[in-house]
Amino acid sequence: MVKSILFVGVGGQGIILASKILTEGLLKFGYDVKMSEVHGMAQRGGSVTTQVRFGDKVYSPLIGEGEADVVVSFEKVEAARWINYLKKDGKLIVNDYEIFSLPVLIGKENYPTNIEEELEKSGVNFKLFNAAKIAEEIGNIKTQNMVILGALVKSLGLENLDWEGVIKEVLPEKLVDINTKAFKYGLSI
């Protein structure tokens, strides 16, 4: 059976790193894994998506509408933008975090204020938490991606694998402790 994970967010949130750690871990633990990433206008705060598919045998990294087992949204508006990719019985993980686009910053548009209400109305199975706040409490806001990754790993039932070892392999030594702490916190969400 193949599982499909769609990561969505805004450039600079660590989406590609989180999906790389997930991919490396899944490969290490014997899964066939395919990954595809789209940077868009990432360096300007634009959308970033990463698609990860894993299982016994995976032929393509691409996830179509209605095919994602899990959509992981690093920013609230992105959850609403990509929800149509979620399977009917899929899970949505949402970082309760807002990044204002340029049109919002210059007053041409308003940031949507009813995203959580819309998600509730949609009937989607979703988990909403503020990974940025948790990461700040841990000691570094840049680790919010690891908090989110921990929550994803738990939702997939893969928490018993050696993720700390994978984090050690992927990250520079000076970043391992704080990111491992953030990941473990995410496992408790």
UniProtKB/TrEMBL annotation:
Residues 11-187 form the Pyruvate/ketoisovalerate oxidoreductase catalytic domain. The keyword Cytoplasm does not apply. InterPro entries: IorB_Oxidoreductase, Pyrv/ketoisovalerate_OxRed_cat, Pyrv_flavodox_OxRed_cen. It is an enzyme of class 1 (oxidoreductase). Its EC number is 1.2.7.8. Keywords: Oxidoreductase, Pyruvate. The keyword Transport does not apply. Pfam families: POR (PF01558). GO terms for molecular function: indolepyruvate ferredoxin oxidoreductase activity. This is Indolepyruvate oxidoreductase subunit IorB.
